[in-house]
Amino acid sequence: MNRAPGDGLSAGEVARRLGVAVTTLRSWHRRYGLGPDQHEAHHHRRYTRQDLSRLEVMCRLTGEGMPAADAARAALTVHPLESVERPRTGSALSARAGGGNTIPVGGAGPEARGLARAAMRLDVATMSSVITRMIGARGVVHTWDHLLRPVLAGVGERHAAGGGLVEVEHLLSRTISETFAAVPRPAGAPTPRTLLASADEEQHTLPVEALAAALAERGHRSLMLGARVPPGALAAVVGRVGPTVVVLWSQAPATAAAGQLNGLRGTPLVVAAGPGWPRDGLPPSAARPASLGEALDLTLRWLPTAG
Ligand code: B12
Q1: 177/198 same-domain check
Q2: 149 pocket-lining for ligand 1 (C-beta < 6 Å)
């Protein structure tokens, strides 16, 4: 949309611009007074640039996990209403913003709800800042378990229930990949001793990207082959690099042919990670972690202490 909001934007235009539902805008207006500043009787309300700025603050803060009432208060402080009486406080302000179109995150905290909202709005900047902040404050493993996993599982749940949300899933995945890749890799570390890959035809990679970032936090580089690694290619890299640890991710049984692990026999630690791998039929020496934390601990046990 090219028109500047000089003449005012309709609620639909504002909703599209901000990536929220029109019903959410109405609810923010009704509950918190974050509506169009100027309102002429018998005319549709038009949102000015000032109104839009206020709503942008509201979106950013709720995206970062701030409760809607607090975010509204902050938005009104940054860009106060000039010509309209500031509406109600108290019980109306403590109500939560609706929107209906949400990703379930179970009992996860406000950051997860904020990330889920930002993902629904396709708001990459907020997604990225929420994830980066938690990684900085709590580390990769905590961020994976308490922020990313609940939101990813919620996206999967919504998708399985009714299809759709593919664009949300893609953008969220890409943003997670980028934030993991931005975790600083230790400079001058020796050749990586850990090889990370997703199984043959396996497109899911985020869990191994999480492990690479968690290892980097502990001072270890790893070699990441990424998605859909054919067994021949995996064996070739193992032959060239001679890693101490190989982690192979399978998300679903369709990509979990046990034969892929055969070419890894000379590797001291082979980790068959992910829910795809069968309970039986894997080489007995293959480790089967139950979580990112466990996969990290297993791997670290085989690596020299990082200096
Ligand atoms: C993001 C995503 C994608 C992205 C992946 C992007 C990327 N770069 O990874 C894209 C869009 C590519 C994708 C594609 C597909 N996807 Co997908 N996807 C997901 C989603 C939403 C998250 C995946 C994820 O990272 N999960 C990781 C965590 C959140 O889940 P977890 O497996 O429960 O993890 C725990 C354990 O594995 C354990 N663990 C044990 N060992 C280890 C080791 C380590 C290192 C770690 C970190 C954890 C760990 O701890 C984890 C918790 O931390 C899931 C939903 C879900 N619930 O997972 C669907 C999901 C996995 N996908 C699904 C499907 C069907 C597909 C497609 C087939 C869709 C299609 N029709 O094309 C394709 C797959 C094609 C292929 N051959 O691989 C299904 C799988 C169903 C099944 N079991 O067979 C799911 C469950 C969605 C659903 N409910 O239907 N997907």
Answers
A1: no
A2: yes
